[in-house]
Specification:
The protein is mostly helical and 131 residues long. The chain contains four helices and no strands. The longest helix is centred in the C-terminal third of the chain and has 35 residues. It is elongated and about 110 Å long. The chain starts with a helix and ends in a 6-residue tail after the last helix.
Length: 131
């Protein structure tokens, strides 16, 4: 059986092409902007925690102490963004956020119950004059 040079060249090109694809595809996924969100970067949780401590412990008291309401509001918004980002990336903090959301839902239900009871009491004690 005679092997032609053309056949060897095609097979070689196919092998080289497949090797390049196998090498480049994982690199493309690892360098994506969401690589940290997939859990590929372990230090991100620590970095976000340090940023939160800095904003809550240093920057926010400065803004409150100087009486700058706009700075205080912006700092609180940044703290909230960092807190949610950390909860998205780090499973331990995500459970904390879930627990806080459940507590907030229970508080809203309780507030609605109190408001309904207050409206009923006003109607009862006013003799129906105030609905």
């Amino acid at each position: 059986m005679k092997v032609r040079f053309e056949t060897l060249r095609r097979v070689g090109a196919a092998v080289v092409g497949m090797c390049l694809v196998l090498l480049l595809v994982p690199a493309a996924f690892a360098s994506s902007p969401d690589a940290g969100e997939q859990g590929n970067y372990r230090g991100q949780c620590r970095r976000l925690t340090r940023q939160l401590e800095h904003f809550e412990g240093t920057i926010l008291p400065l803004a409150i102490g100087r009486g700058n309401r706009a700075w205080e509001d912006a700092t609180n918004a940044q703290i909230e963004r960092l807190w949610h980002r950390r909860a998205d990336l780090c499973p331990a903090y995500g459970a904390e956020r879930t627990m806080m959301r459940k507590a907030a839902d229970r508080m809203r239900k309780f507030n609605r119950l109190v408001a309904a009871a207050g409206r009923a009491a006003v109607t009862y004690f006013s003799g129906g004059a105030i609905p």
